[in-house]
Specification:
By secondary structure, this protein is mainly α. The chain contains 9 helices and 2 strands. It has one domain. It has a two-stranded antiparallel ribbon. The longest helix has 22 residues.
Length: 163
């Protein structure tokens, strides 16, 4: 089991993979989304491009955490609906997303990037920070990426998809 401050992540190869991807320089959404790309049959280049806008709380707007967005995008591909008139499927999927968000919030008290990072309101420069040792010391992003991947990984184990 991986211990992140008071948070626990079960041994999860997807969580480890997502954290390694983040450390390689991928944004938080890309790291989580790509960690599951084999599950939904998408090539890695497409997965990375699709999730590229969601890093930094959506393009460094510091809104919904990119790790959470990546988790939601993967959940959509794995469990989502496509018929806009299927109210039951839509309801079930929104319930699922709220469960996933709740599990993340349970450990972090928020799914909002600026709150997770202790930042004030307002937009930031669109220029990403360089990934230095100092960056990793002041940001919990590696752990948040691992936690989001772990939450989804455990959800998948507990809730196998229906064919």
């Amino acid at each position: 089991m991986i211990y992140l401050k008071e948070k626990k992540i079960k041994d999860s190869s997807r969580a480890e993979y997502a954290m390694e991807l983040f450390k390689e320089g991928y944004n938080c959404a890309q790291a989580v989304f790509l960690a599951f790309h084999d599950s939904y049959g998408m090539d890695s280049d497409t997965a990375l491009k699709l999730s590229s806008s969601f890093g930094g709380g959506m393009g460094k707007l510091r809104e919904v955490c990119g790790a959470v967005s990546g988790m939601f995008m993967a959940a959509g591909l794995l469990y989502g609906y496509s018929d806009p008139k299927d109210q039951a499927a839509k309801t079930e999927h929104y319930k699922r997303i709220q469960v996933l968000a709740g599990k993340f919030e349970e450990h972090n008290h928020s799914i909002i990037c600026r709150e997770l990072l202790g930042l004030g309101a307002g937009k930031e420069s669109p220029i990403p920070e360089l990934r230095t040792a100092e960056y990793y010391k002041k940001r919990p992003c590696v752990e948040l990426v691992g936690m989001a991947a772990d939450i989804l990984d455990n959800y998948i184990i507990d809730n196998p998809r229906q064919s």
